Amino acid sequence: MFGEKGDDEDIATMETVGFVGLGTMGGPMCARLARAGHRVQAFDLNPDALEAAAAAGVSAAGSAAEAADGVDVLMTSLPAPAHVEAVMCDAGALAALSPNSIWVDLTTSRPESIQRLATEAPAGVAVVDSPVTGAVDGARNGTLTLFAGGEAATVQRVRPLLERLGRVIECGALGTGCVVKLVTNQLWFVAAAALAEGLAVGVRNGVELGDLWEAIKDSAADSFVARHDAPSIFAGHYDPSFSLGLCVKDLGLVAELEAAVGADLPMTAAARAAFERAAERYGLDAAELSVARRIEDDADLSLRLDGDWVPHWEA
To answer: Catalytic amino acids?
Structure first.
């Protein structure tokens, strides 16, 4: 069913991919696989998402089980563990998989969920957890980072397909991809909350916002968050491609992992509290960087900055 690694033409034309979940991240990833030459059959509850995928050469399936039927690889990209459970078990996608196929879950989830579902997979079906990071522009441009957990031989089989989407980092046994993704989000949320506070402190104490941002980027305070996310604050849309609800969900999953540490983690706790406060005020559907908006509103200051801030999901 699979071409050998390195046989790019065989990989591009012979693998049949099922894809369930055509949201903000899943839609661009699915389209990218189709444009690379894979035969892709996909499903989403949103008919508009299916129509957009069809425009990229994807075949629309009538259900999650139909998307999984007969494919070499099934990929799922869903909001939360409960959605994965619903698709794979309640909707029958797991049972529809054929022997020698691979299910790759791209969802930011809990390790125990993917490990348990792997035990319920039909005989001969292998499972990899490979949540992604890199935002919507990374999904569109194939520059994501994918954190892959699973048996080494299985990850190697599916690696050429995953590399269509970006860089693959092998993390260890099944479930470790989820752990690594949650740790990266843990640090991201800490940095995002801290960035908003730092911008507010500098501006309120007389520093021009543009000068402050340049200083941050050319100092020990530099980070992906400072460069990638600050423009969403400056533009005032706060990045609606990722919601406060997803931030709170991920921080809740991080809390489940914290129990194994056996020590107080005050930075993570503070970030969780900051995002929960923003969600209580603006709603779970509000943009992720509304954590900065809350500070602006409370302090009666503006972090708007003139510039050509092209939304990253359009880059």
So the answer is: 181
